[in-house]
């Protein structure tokens, strides 16, 4: 089902467009992301970043153009292939998406449910190998000592690192992160993004991460892609851009009354 060539794209968007009724939200988007890249997706509120991430994970079908993820078009691949693709594409949300009354360990184990036939209730009902993997992934995000703590008693930054560890259980080849640090203070934000960067480099998976904090985008990404008014207006290696030019993208949007 997937394109196995090492030089193949993780993600290939061609002439992508999306409208909701008469409202055009994205137009003419072309993007080719190679395996292992960390892409920061920036742009003002309403620019279309979340819509783009939803098109990539198959939650929306484009009204124009094509999406190709790991060699598969999520819009046309059929339900079974879409399910399989979703196990290879992890999603990290702004609001963490954890079950607050459950422990960090149980939340992380839930990331493996896609590989199990039956639902599980409680840590002891998961196979030992998965329990070991969950502890190891919590160690990788610096939270092994907190594994039995209820998630709703962890700090926001710790909760987002649990969400990253949960995604690691999928052995995802792409992780899509939609404003993962929007509700965190600057220190916790950097810590979460550095954690995501570290584990992506260790495992070689691709990251597309929407962010409003341009300073953080510059610190953690290899490549910056900017969207404004539904169009891709910048696509550049991070080392070739500056904080001032990224801030300009937001200033122009304000000037245009967005
Ligand atoms: N299901 C939908 N139906 C109608 N309009 C939608 C839908 N989803 C998104 N939109 C519109 O598409 C536009 C882009 O929204 P989107 O959430 O993708 O922007 P964003 O860049 O992620 O914004 P933010 O940074 O504030 O999260 C907005 O005008 C939004 O109202």
From TrEMBL:
Coiled-coil region list: none
Any matching Pfam family: ABC_tran
The organism's place on the tree of life at top rank: Bacteria
SUPFAM superfamilies in alphabetical order: P-loop containing nucleoside triphosphate hydrolases (SSF52540)
Ranges where the ABC transporter domain occurs: 11-254
InterPro entries, per the entry: AAA+_ATPase, ABC_transporter-like_ATP-bd, ABC_transporter-like_CS, ABC_transpr_PhnC, MetN_ABC_transporter-like, P-loop_NTPase
GO MF annotation list: ABC-type phosphonate transporter activity; ATP binding; ATP hydrolysis activity
Keyword Nucleotide-binding among record annotations: yes
GO cellular component, one term: membrane
Entry keyword set: ATP-binding, Cell membrane, Membrane, Nucleotide-binding, Translocase, Transport
Protein name per Swiss-Prot or TrEMBL: Phosphonate ABC transporter ATP-binding protein
Species in which this protein is naturally found: Arthrobacter caoxuetaonis
């Amino acid at each position: 089902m997937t394109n196995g060539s090492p030089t193949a794209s993780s993600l290939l968007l061609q002439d992508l467009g999306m409208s909701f009724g008469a409202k055009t939200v994205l137009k003419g988007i072309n993007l080719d992301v190679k395996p292992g890249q960390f892409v920061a997706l920036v742009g003002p509120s309403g620019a279309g970043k979340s819509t783009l991430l939803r098109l990539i994970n198959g939650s929306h079908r484009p009204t124009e153009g094509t999406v190709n993820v790991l060699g598969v078009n999520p819009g046309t691949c059929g339900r079974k292939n879409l399910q399989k693709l979703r196990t290879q594409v992890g999603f990290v949300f702004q609001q963490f998406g954890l079950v607050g009354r459950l422990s960090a360990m149980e939340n992380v184990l839930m990331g493996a449910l896609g590989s199990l036939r039956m639902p599980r209730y409680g840590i002891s009902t998961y196979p030992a190998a998965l329990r070991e993997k969950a502890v190891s992934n919590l160690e990788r995000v610096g939270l092994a000592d907190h594994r039995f703590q209820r998630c709703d008693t962890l700090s926001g930054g710790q909760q987002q690192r649990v969400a990253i560890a949960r995604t690691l259980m999928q052995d995802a080849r792409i992780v899509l992160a939609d404003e993962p640090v929007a509700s965190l203070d600057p220190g916790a934000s950097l810590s979460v993004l550095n954690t995501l960067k570290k584990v992506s480099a260790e495992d070689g998976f691709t990251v597309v991460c929407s962010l409003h904090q341009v300073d953080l985008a510059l610190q953690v990404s290899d490549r910056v892609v900017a969207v404004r008014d539904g169009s891709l207006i910048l696509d550049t290696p991070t080392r070739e851009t500056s904080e001032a030019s990224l801030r300009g993208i937001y200033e122009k949007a304000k000037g245009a009354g967005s």
